[in-house]
């Protein structure tokens, strides 16, 4: 059975909260991954329920200070599956690149003074993960503006893509081939909560996704892939 997905909507102007990490607990995963050093930092923030609107307004207003330092893949807020959460993904060339960016952010007076100092009191919890794209996946783009995004997390057996990669790829491709959804990216974690895979899908609308998923689970290709 698939885990419950989180349905998310993108922000009109994506945002990023990059805060210095004070001694994070990190665990190292094993298994094949992409050959280059590029990785993705996935940040999830729990926002105080009464402060969500205020937080989103700040994000849209001050996003440009953060994106001046590194590439933002996307920023979303949740509508289904979790409440008062935001998720954003940042791309880095390597860990040295991230260190340089973090140092620059800590010294950016506009970012620290206008956003961070005001945003911190609005948050209840922060979590980050370092992840790589699974070896067979490239980061995609939605076919058009708008739509909704689905963030699905799978807890895998230890061993990395070498263990579960082919069966997982077959299951993902089976859904892609039905044509109702678009794969944006599939990430497996390297630091943070281990042996997890996050899959980001784009759908035209919640109703389009629901109808497509119902049809897909009656498709022989999807059923067969789910048994591998």
Automatic annotation (TrEMBL):
GO CC entries? mitochondrion
The superkingdom listed in its UniProt entry is: Eukaryota
* Record Gene3D superfamilies: 3.30.70.100
Q: Which parts form a coiled-coil structure per UniProt?
A: none
Q: Residue ranges of the NIPSNAP domain? A: 40-138, 149-223
Record bears the keyword Plastid? no
Keyword annotations: Signal
| Gene Ontology biological process terms in this record | mitophagy
Q: Which residues cross the membrane?
A: none
According to the record, the signal peptide region is 1-29
**Do the record's keywords include Signal?**
yes
Q: Which family does it belong to?
A: Belongs to the NipSnap family.
Q: What name does this protein carry?
A: NIPSNAP domain-containing protein
